[in-house]
Design brief:
Elements lengths: L1 E4 L10 E4 L9 E8 L4 H8 L6 H4 L12 E9 L11 E5 L10 E5 L4 E3 L6 H5 L3 H13 L6 E5 L4 H12 L3 E6 L4 H6 L4 E4 L12 E6 L6 H4 L3 E9 L8 E3 L6
Parallel strand pairs: 8-9, 8-11, 9-10, 11-12
Antiparallel strand pairs: 1-2, 3-4, 3-6, 4-5, 5-7, 12-13
Helix pairs in contact: 4-5
């Protein structure tokens, strides 16, 4: 089978497409044929070995996993004898921020890992777009605990994490102001935004409204720049935080 292989940290030039041996599942693993995967921000950080602290998890001097890839959608081609929750033919999807070696025709994965069946008849190409960004967005949403009637501002609303935040906020009944390019306004409205700020013509930090939540999915502003936009006890989070779930609140920081 073919796979994207890297044996050192660096830019995309360190990746080679090579013919490698098809993996054999262990007793508690599935053999999965990969139908779609992404190249996402997590993949980039693993490829670069940056920020440096990641190397304590992915390999100090060279990557532990030679094949790249952190997410996938595919079909279980075979299940080993101790696998109980999945069967051959199941359509499955999964993500692991330390890597799954999913940039390949096949991978093996224990059934206890972060993997589920693909809901309904969602096409593979749509399912794979719902993984990495939504994973990080849900981590933030669970910390924020939004409720219906609150207001949120999402900066970078067309990114993987930002677009997921818009949809999660909408699910909880939160009114969403989205910051994005003006030409993407209709798209962002279609996923739940109530109001659009075109960052090409407006500075969202000068907005007159105040919000219960601000999420910076573009990682281009700070809590200090946004603090005046938050209501008392309002929460700010950024995709650039070390664990993507660090929250600042105005009540804790003198707002």
């Amino acid at each position: 089978m073919k796979a994207a292989v890297h044996v050192q940290y660096g830019q995309p030039e360190v990746i080679s497409i090579l013919e490698v041996e098809k993996p054999t599942p262990k007793d508690n693993e599935l053999l999965i044929k990969v139908y779609a995967t992404t190249v996402n921000r997590t993949d980039c950080h693993i490829l670069w070995g940056k920020p440096f602290f990641m190397r304590f998890l992915t390999g100090l001097f060279k990557p532990h996993l030679k094949i790249t890839g952190t997410d996938f959608v595919g079909q279980a081609e075979a299940t080993a004898k101790y696998v109980k929750n999945f069967k051959t033919g199941d359509r499955v999807m999964g993500f692991e921020f330390l890597g799954l070696q999913s940039h390949a025709h096949y991978l093996t994965l224990a059934e206890t890992k972060d993997m589920i069946r693909i809901p309904g008849d969602i096409p593979y190409e749509q399912a794979v777009a719902c993984i990495e960004g939504a994973f990080y967005a849900m981590n933030v949403i669970q910390k924020m605990k939004p409720t219906a009637g609150q207001k949120a501002l999402v900066h970078g609303a067309t990114g993987a994490i930002g677009s997921s935040m818009v949809q999660f906020f909408r699910f909880y009944g939160v009114s969403v102001t989205a910051v994005c390019r003006g030409q993407h306004g209709e798209l962002v409205r279609s996923i739940g935004a109530d109001r659009i700020i075109d960052y090409q013509t407006e500075d969202f930090t000068k907005d007159k409204d105040q919000y219960d939540f601000i999420f910076d999915g573009a990682d281009k502003c700070t809590f200090g720049q946004c603090k005046h936009l938050l209501k008392k006890k309002g929460m700010y989070s950024s995709s650039g935080a070390p664990d993507l779930v660090r929250l600042f609140t105005t009540s804790l920081l003198g707002g």
